[in-house]
Structure formats: structure tokens, C-alpha cells
Amino acid sequence: MAIPSSLITNISLGSVGLATVGGVVYGSYELLKDNPRPISQFLSVKKKVALSQTGDEEAWKTNWKKYLDKYNPPKTPPKVVEPPADPEPAPEPIKNVWDLKDWDTIKGKPTEVPAVFKEKCKSKENEKVAGIWKEEFKNFLDYCTKDDLNDV
Question: Where does the pLDDT of residue 73 fall: very low under 50, low under 70, confident under 90, or very high at 90 and above?
């Protein structure tokens, strides 16, 4: 039984297409890893804009809450269970990723966005990263941006 030529053609074209996409992705990575760019240059790719230092209060509050939820999780009450033979090691404390000043004070104020948080976002906007897959970019996206309503 012979294999239809259309199947061979489709497999060949699919392989070429896959190789091309892989080459573009790899080439983009290679190009950017040695040529980092400011975070602000990548925002349009994700259809986001940086928050304004003097406006966007609701977005600031939302993003501050996200930051607190991740780096200041609520304390869980201890479970009432039989004590284990060997005690479990204490979990590693979660440190706020941006090492914000006065963390012990500001983390207790979830409705007040501290100036130090806004200032950190402003300084991060011009920080250079190798691409949108970097953790620094993802953090900026989560805590310092809002949707670009002009790009809808």
C-alpha cells in the first residue's frame, strides 16, 4: 500500500513550519539574552501600561493587595492533631521580593498603598530584562501595570 503524496507533502510542510517557528523562538531568545531592554519596552506586547504615580488609585490598591497576598500570607491557626514522632521543620518565611523598606509596618496596612511600593515600581520600569519570560518582568506586570484600554 502506497502512502498518498498529499500526506507526505503535509508532513513535510508541517516539519518545515515547526522548524521555522522553533528557529524564530530560539533566535529571539539568543538576540535578547545579550541585549536586555527596559521593561517599559515590553509592556505593549502584553497590552499593559505602567501605573501613573499620581493616579490609578484603584489599580494601585488591587496590585498592592496582590503583592501582600503573595508575600504576606495570612497566618493559619495550628491544627489540632496528634503530635508527630518527629516535628516538621518550620516553613521558610516568605520574603517580599522587592525588599521594601519598613516591610513589617507597611504589610499591616492593606488598604494604604505605600509610597515605597510606587517608587519601586517606577524604578523597575527602566530596569533592563532579557525578555518577557524573566521573573523581573512578570513581577512588574503583576504589581505595576494595568490593562491598556487604548489597545482593546
Answer: confident
As a whole number of angstroms, the distance between CA 64 and CA 106 comes to 11
Q: Provide the grid cell at 16.
A: 518545515
Rounded to a whole number of angstroms, the CA Rg of the chain reads 23
pLDDT in tens, 45-64: 899 999 998 889 999 999 99
Q: What is the pTM of this model?
A: 0.68
Quick check: 63 and 142 in contact, CB under 8 A?
yes
The verdict on residue 86 lying in a domain is no
Domain extent, residue 76, equals 38-80+93-151
Has residue 49 been placed in a domain? yes
**Structural domains counted in the chain:** 1
